[in-house]
Amino acid sequence: MKKLSSPSDLEELRNKIIARKDPKKPIVAVCVSTGCQALGAQEVLAALVEEIRKQGLEGKVGIRCTGCLGLCEGGPRIAIYPDEVFYFKVKPSDVPLLVSKTLLKGEIVSSLLYSDPVTGKTAKKLDEVPFYRYQTRLLLEMNAQIDPASIEDYIALGGYSALAKALFNMTPQQIIDEIKRSGLRGRGGGGFPTGRKWETTRNAHGEPKYVIVNCDEGDPGVFANRALMEGNPHLILEGLIIGAYAVGASEGYVYVREEYPLAVKHMQIAIEQAEKYGLLGENILGSGFSFKVKIHRGAGAFVSGESTALMNAIEGKVGEPRPKYIHTAEKGLWEKPTVLNNVETWANVPLIINKGADWFRSMGTKESPGTKIFTLSGKVKNTGLIEVPMGITIREIVYKIGGGIKGDKKFKAVHIGGPSGGVVPEQHLDTPIDFDELVRLGSMMGSGGIIVMDSDTCMVDTARYFIDFLSGESCGKCVPCREGLKQARRILEEIVAGRGKPEHIKTLLELAETMRDAALCALGQTAANPLLTTLQYFEDEYFAHIFERRCPALSCKDLLTFYIDPEKCSGCHQCYRTCPEQAIEGEQDQIHVIIQSKCNKCGQCYDVCPPEYKAVQKISGETPPPVIPQEYRWLKQPWQTAEVTQTRKAWVMSNPNTVVNLIKKANKPIIVIGHAILENAYADKKLIDHVVELAQTAAIPIIATPNVTGELIKRNCKPAAVLSLMEIGSRLVDREWLGVDGNGPHDLVIFVGLPYYMSYEIMSALKNFAKNIVTVNLDNMYNPQSTWSLPNMSTREWFNFIMSIVSKIKEVNGNVHVPRYTC
Amino acid sequence: MGMMPKEDVEAKIDMIIDKYAGKSGVLIQLLLEIQRELNWVPREAIKRINERLGIPESEIYRVVSFYTAMSLTPRGKYLVRVCTGTACYIRGAQRVLTAAEKAIGVKAGETTDDLKFTLQTVNCLGCCALGPVVEINGKYYGLLTPKTLENIISNLRGESS
Ligand SMILES: Cc1cc2nc3c(=O)[nH]c(=O)nc-3n(C[C@H](O)[C@H](O)[C@H](O)COP(=O)(O)O)c2cc1C
Ligand code: SF4
Ligand code: SF4
Ligand code: FES
Ligand code: FES
After folding, report:
1. Nearest to A34 among B95, B126, B143 (CB)
2. Which fold has domain B78-158?
3. DSSP for A648-712?
4. Closest CA–CA distance from residue B133 to any residue of chain A (Å)
5. In angstroms, rounded to a whole number, what is the distance separating the alpha carbons of residues A794 and B17?
6. Three-class SS string for A744-806?
7. DSSP string of A262-295?
């Protein structure tokens, strides 16, 4: 490849690339960025390559591996061009269908389209997806259309035309003026006006001058810079070259953290390609301007992203900040004038040069024009990278783009800006956010991380988390930061552990003030933001921890108590098996209890208790009810638990309607009552009362054992037959028996109040020898031998179940009344 | 890689130092490369760098202990990195970490005796939208629950080494 040596060379190449491209040739763009990889994108890609080979489509279909497309939670993501079909959550097993339908026939596989979690509606176009509809994706949009390893993809989209314009149609001063007029402010957090910084460096004495890309991105919780550098490295590079020309720099550095290997790789490829094409290196595009770029891999400490620390690191020293008596724009790298800008700042430059300052100012707010990329994460439905005009409200971000709170919990706050930022509570949902508004709210743009918090997030713990993080990241060089953070961390740890003291709040405020005023670098100066904002907006949560030993969000471990609600426990034994501390007592079919002195509050029992029981309770600031004594814990007798495996087990009835329907369908139902019916009572009613009501409402005759007859008569209910259980069993099995009224055999038998072993035996016999009879076990222990059985239930659930059968039958009877038999 | 014969390790260290000898301001890059190649920064490496480049050992130790990407102890075959960055923390990373500690049998920062697993926490793996996230030898796992992580670990443990 001959180096491009004039702007017209570049245009010619661009036209050639475009002409060479067959606009009809399908391109499958696969996001292989980290998020999608975590969801299996590599496997999908491999399946795609394989399927294309199998179907003989090699050469006819292009595959493009792209950077992050934004809505990572919908990954692995695939886009198909030129038809612009966007698929979400693609699995390797979907690939054959995708190839044979969409690639070969141009049909859409609707199951792979985005489907709205609320309405279930699928979206064909990206703007039909709410996540994208409310965004302005100037910088991120290109990610889907570009293979980051291909400079030609970038050139085809107009790439490097801004560079040509800057080099040939503008003077350095004109470039600086244009950037100044655009109002572009540093995306690295502080929002310093970029044009002014460039001008300072341009006018400063000292040679050579340097330009640096800051891709340290040390905030734990954001990945916007990474996505840009992985997905579109040439855009950043083009901005950097333009900046270098404007300030008169001959050397540049791209500082990338070690943890971003793909970003390093793509930037490396981009630099090599740009050099090969004559867009970087000696005599760029024949303009006479020369500029070279090196990559510096940083080893990832948060403070290394600070400007002086970063320059120290490039110089080969430990990445700690140094005092900034003179701005780095004048005395930066190796004491020479240096422009350091964030990845996103650089990426905006080519756009401004191409489209002009006025266009840029048409977006965003007056003081903060343009768009801003945020990493949206936490407790929202849609998480990922978003690019929005400055001045958008938090409400729009959380509810329109983010789709609202996950699990429809209650919104509590957002934390904006990473460790130097702060929380913004509900009352500011409608504040338009830009650099200055955020500072007014006590937060800052910082890293552009937006973490959504719901009612389960504890604000004191959030402050503790950030202070702990910063205290680990403080380089220790200055005392206010090192000691201040250490002290603040210790106090916050005391508070979340339930040992907070009233005077702690005052001490925290004092520490915050000292750090803000006396710390050496911005890490320490802004470190108190998370603390101050949580104190300002959520003071009541601090008070609850300190005065009531209560965590309102039920999140601080030491303030929690777990106990098992005896009414709800089904004795399933799951929690017992999971508890790492052997803090749970109980055997299968017993009500379980937690021994508080052994419990370490890991919450695992809370997680495993099956949702149908939800027996484990989590409380804070209250004492749990006393543990019930051992003798009341049995849900059924221990020797009854053995269950012989059978050919078919009973279906479980979890809905009273099942019984109602069975009764309705039956020709000759009957209820069999045993003596255990007298033993169960709940809320001053006995089981027998409910069963009599059932028999009377549904007009079903009763067969009872002799010892309950008296109680039945007392309730005005005369049994149709009185027999011992053994006898009842043998009559029912006898096919010749014509039932209690002598008119014909029974087809539905409901058992209730029988000892478990008896009903087990009888129903086993019926199951095997009287297949015409449907049996229903209405006792609260699962009986596999019946046709239909209740699951294991607490007495309360059991009684409620029978009562709802009665009331449902009353409803049905309200319409048609078919008397069968009255007892 | 902790199992490489001693001479090989030394040769490798020398080879890496060769690449950087004669240049200034290279210590961090040099150490990072040793970390990448050997999976840790052994004592011999520090001694060698001191002998050959004249950088004081105390300075080298300072750098290695400052950066989380470098380790002064050997790492296991599987480096399990649990993200405790903010986005993951809010979504329950602590519980995933507890599960990892239980499944692997060591605390964060430690390596199992059989050098099979090293468990670490990291500040962010860059796919915060999918928290909680865990990275094991370069492969990322998103939207994790304590249970799925336990399964992943037991699969790795089960495979023949
Ligand atoms: C502790 C700390 C960490 C920082 N981390 C980053 C970072 O990761 N990326 C970044 O671009 N700027 C970071 N900054 C801000 C930089 O010091 C600097 O202001 C910025 O890179 C300038 O670029 P901009 O004007 O384009 O924003 C950090 C500042 C501090 C105090
Ligand atoms: S919280 Fe943990 S330790 Fe306590 S009872 Fe439940 S499982 Fe056991
Ligand atoms: S129902 Fe819940 S509390 Fe009771 S034994 Fe099962 S898991 Fe434990
Ligand atoms: S990583 Fe694929 S969409 Fe973000
Ligand atoms: S916070 Fe866990 S991946 Fe970013």
Report:
1. B126
2. Glutaredoxin (3.40.30)
3. SPPEE--SHHHHHHHHHH-SSEEEEE-GGGGT-EETTEEHHHHHHHHHHHHT--EEE-HHHHHHH
4. 8
5. 72
6. CCCCEEEEECCCHHHHHHHHHHHHHHCCCCEEEECCCCCCCCCCEECCCCCHHHHHHHHHHHH
7. HHHHHHHHHHHHHHHTTSSBSSGGGSS--BEEEE
For the segment A14-18, the average pLDDT, to the nearest whole number, is 95
Q: Give average pLDDT by consecutive 10-residue segment, chain B, 161 residues.
A: 70 90 82 87 91 89 80 87 90 90 91 91 84 89 89 84 46
| Sheet of A411-416, strand order | A384-389, A371-378, A449-454, A411-416, A422-425
In CATH, what number does A557-632 get?
3.30.70.20
Domain boundaries, chain B: 6-66, 78-158
In three-state form (DSSP H/G/I as H, E/B as E, the rest C), the secondary structure along chain B is: CCCCCHHHHHHHHHHHHHHHCCCCCCHHHHHHHHHHHHCCCCHHHHHHHHHHHCCCHHHHHHHHHHCCCCCCCCCCCEEEEEECCHHHHHCCHHHHHHHHHHHHCCCCCCECCCCCEEEEEECCCCCHHHCCCEEECCEEECCCCHHHHHHHHHHHHHCCC
Query: In CATH terms, is domain A651-815 a member of 3.40.50.1220?
Result: yes
Say which amino acid occupies A275.
Answer: E
Output the six-digit token pair for A807: 């009331």
Provide the residue type at A715 as one letter. R
**Residue that is written with structure tokens 């209650």 in the block:** A410
CA dihedral sign, ordered A219, A224, A230, A235: negative
* The domain made up of A25-129 is a member of CATH 3.40.50.720: no
pLDDT, tens only, A419-476: 889 999 999 999 999 999 999 998 999 889 999 999 999 999 999 999 999 998 888 8
Number of A–B residue contacts, CB under 8 Å: 138
Distance CA A439, CA A189 (A): 11
Other Cβ atoms less than 10 A from the Cβ of A238: the count is 29
**pLDDT at residue B158, rounded to an integer:** 82
Which B positions 31-90 lie with beta carbon below 8 A of chain A? 32, 62-63, 66-70, 83-90
What pLDDT is recorded for position A261? 85
pLDDT, tens digit, 9 for 90 and up, residues A794-804: 888 999 999 99
Contact B66 A318 (CB under 8 A): yes
pLDDT at residue A820, as a whole number: 47
Is the ipTM higher than 0.90? The answer is no
Task: Look at B85 and A267; give whichever has higher pLDDT.
Answer: A267
B25–chain A Cβ distance below 8 A for any pair: yes
